Predict the structure.
Amino acid sequence: MSKTSHTPTSSFTKELAEIPGGEGINQCIQCGICTASCAVASVSDRYRPRQLIQKILIGKRDEVLKSDIPWLCMTCRMCEERCQEGVSPAEIFQAVRHLAVKEGQVPSTFTNVADQVLRDGWMLEEAYSDFIEDDREDLGLETDLAFDAEFTQKLRRKYFGGEKKK
Ligand code: SF4
Ligand code: SF4
């Protein structure tokens, strides 16, 4: 497998190559095999791993860090398996996400979910309706899905320094 390293074309590329996971970006030759192999790309025209790497290579720092696209990678690593240059878009996009977190650029879809888990202890408290409870009862399943609120409170206090918001 070729390991040719190309000259970085932007300061953003150099910056990312310094972050763990981002090192391989200089080896990308923009062949597009990653996009052709990607399960997310197969269901969404918005998600194109090759194109996202291209934006990094040409230095579109703001656009990439403010975008929700790097957050759509499900890290299946099929792209990594097939890339003939030994590049891992999954690792590169993880490095992008780390940088985005450091700069407070996490898409609200994800912060909302994190807030919800910190508040309720799980993601589905609001969705757990009487209808679902009845269905579970009919199916002979456990209906008391009460989360360990005390444990959630301890986590919140320890790592986020706050009490449960209601
Ligand atoms: S990451 Fe690999 S597969 Fe994707 S465009 Fe670059 S060289 Fe091709
Ligand atoms: S790791 Fe991400 S970019 Fe690579 S194939 Fe899977 S979803 Fe697509």
